[in-house]
Amino acid sequence: MVKAIFFDIDGTLVSFKTHTIPESARKALALLREKGIKVFIATGRPKVLMMKAVGGLDFDGYITLNGAYCFTAGHQDIYKGAIPEEDIERLIRFNKQHPELPFVFVHDDTWFITGVNDAVREVADLIKIDIPPVHPAEYARGKEILQVMGYFQAGEDGEVFSDVLKHCEPMRWYPLFADIIARGNSKSHGIDKVIEYYGIDLKDTMAFGDGGNDIPMLRHAGIGVAMGNAAPEVQNAADYVTSSVDEDGILNALKHFGVL
């Protein structure tokens, strides 16, 4: 019996085409809550951008920053997993040597970026977000950094993660950049923290996603559902592939499994 469902935002709840949540998904979320099924967000977005995307809807809790920061609907912290300060120091030095590579640092409810290039603008336009304020990487010192976003290609991961961010790992859902979190954090780890808090068994969970950073939770949840617009490797990680976000994929899957 499904008691808790976790939803990614971009490409899952929110369409890349319309930048809105389909009416069918809005109705499905309301019906789930009426039935007593808990609904949660599970996103790579920081808190401030997550609330802008889904702030008009009611959820029981939130997994943000790919599992690095989890909290309740009442904004009570459930879990935080910060990046080690020694990794941040190495990244500050690395960014001085490679100023052409922008990095975003997320701390508390705020964020900043070290520079702006075409990749930064493309991603901001893709998900319709404002570009963070620009500060030098040194601005991260003394702050609890929960996530970094690096605008470099996957082929450059080797140097960054072997020599600089030694205690971190990338979560990619778009080729131009990587969400970077402390090793051990993931959306699946976030699910474990949330269901422990609410006293829910993992077998009674369901998760929806479309990006590479959703693969851990799709494999981990009791039922993992990939959207029809997801890449093949994401679909292969899921128990079921529904239609796309623009073709009522969430509602269709919930009906398929008899949840609604």
Automatic annotation (TrEMBL):
Domain of life: Bacteria
Annotated GO CC locations: cytosol
Record key words, sorted: Hydrolase
Entry keyword Hydrolase: yes
A Pfam family annotated for this UniProt entry: Hydrolase_3
Coiled-coil boundaries: none
GO-annotated molecular function: magnesium ion binding; phosphatase activity
Keyword Hydrolase among UniProt keywords: yes
Cited PANTHER family: PHOSPHATASE YKRA-RELATED, PHOSPHOSERINE PHOSPHATASE
Name of the molecule in the record: Cof-like hydrolase
Organism name: Phocaeicola salanitronis (strain DSM 18170 / JCM 13657 / CCUG 60908 / BL78) (Bacteroides salanitronis)
